[in-house]
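Quick one: structure for this chain?
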Amino acid sequence: MVQHLKFCKEIGLKGRILVATEGINGTVSGTVEQTDQYMKLMKEDSRFSDMVFKIDASETHAFKKMHVRHRKELVTLRLDDDLDPTEVTGKYLEPKQFFETMNNPETIVIDARNDYEYDLGHFRGAIRPDIEAFRELPNWIRENRNKFEGKKILTYCTGGIRCEKFSGWLIKEGFEDVAQLHGGIVTYGKDPEVQGQLWDGQCYVFDERISVPINHKKHVIVGKDYFTGEPCERYVNCANPECNKQILCSEENEHKHLRGCSHECRVHPRNRYVEEHGLTEEHILERLKQLNKEALMNPR
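Got it. Here's what it folds into:
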């Protein structure tokens, strides 16, 4: 890992790479020359000669620093029995196959991502598991098992990594007809034939970009402003560092609510919005007073 990090820094890459016994996964950003150099190095290693790289254009670096870290699992399910996706995983469907299968009325589509990812964008009609972290997915499936029994199950995630493990787990749990989107949402959006159809909203990504477009036929906004419920695709983190909850929020509402997702977060002594804008106690009280006034005039 030390050598890998050293090489990445030497050629000027920034990003996040995770290394585990089951493999390697990550995202890096750099110039075309820098990323080509990285891919060449990886493919020269026999262990990674058939590695698939997903390439996306960006005007600037998508990360601030370069990290290479060891993890017990690339994606965390925390199962009692370890699950190796190289031994058992769901059937791979290419974008066109996935698109066609979604249109089958006997198909159940399960989003394998977190709730805040789903809320920004998802496949039309996909089931939204009520989870905040991937490791919560197995318990959610067990609690709702009767909804999926005997159905053809499709699952998807951002780049396909989580689904390799999740679809394999579904098979071990006794679900017989399980398939996954090969290459994930990002690959689906780049397919020249499908062009992202049946995807609504944006795709959440774990870097400085926050989101990327997928449907190149018709863009539909599904995200809703945390405070007003109006269409919104702008994510911010709650200004309370002890909360840090991600919320969809317009610039206007960010300023109005001091970027706090609750009253407690707005008045938190370490509110980052207050610090960033140098607001005085008088300014804060004035905004809170205005919020109270609006709440009385427009009770929900």
